[in-house]
Amino acid sequence: MRISIDKDVCIGAGQCALTAPAVFTQDDDGFSELLPGREDGAGDPLVREAARACPVGAVTVHDG
């Protein structure tokens, strides 16, 4: 699994960080980013739910 965040779409709602705090955080400007070393989701079962929770669809989970 690979996770990507479209920084041009992200509005900083923080739903991903609230849903999967072991994978996502927010930068100093409030926009979502992945925690270091978590680009693959680290097997966190909440990653897909965090992507679904994003109100603007900025978080994408890619299989494989």
UniProtKB/TrEMBL annotation:
Pfam families: Fer4_15. InterPro entries: 3Fe4S_ferredoxin, 4Fe4S_Fe-S-bd, Fe-S_cluster_ET. SUPFAM superfamilies: 4Fe-4S ferredoxins. Gene3D superfamilies: 3.30.70.20. Keywords: 3Fe-4S, Electron transport, Iron, Iron-sulfur, Metal-binding, Transport. Its cofactor is [3Fe-4S] cluster. It comes from the Bacteria. GO terms for molecular function: 3 iron, 4 sulfur cluster binding; electron transfer activity; iron ion binding. PROSITE patterns: 4FE4S_FER_2. Residues 1-29 form the 4Fe-4S ferredoxin-type domain. Ferredoxins are iron-sulfur proteins that transfer electrons in a wide variety of metabolic reactions. This is Ferredoxin. The lineage of its organism: Bacteria, Bacillati, Actinomycetota, Actinomycetes, Kitasatosporales. The gene is suaB_1.
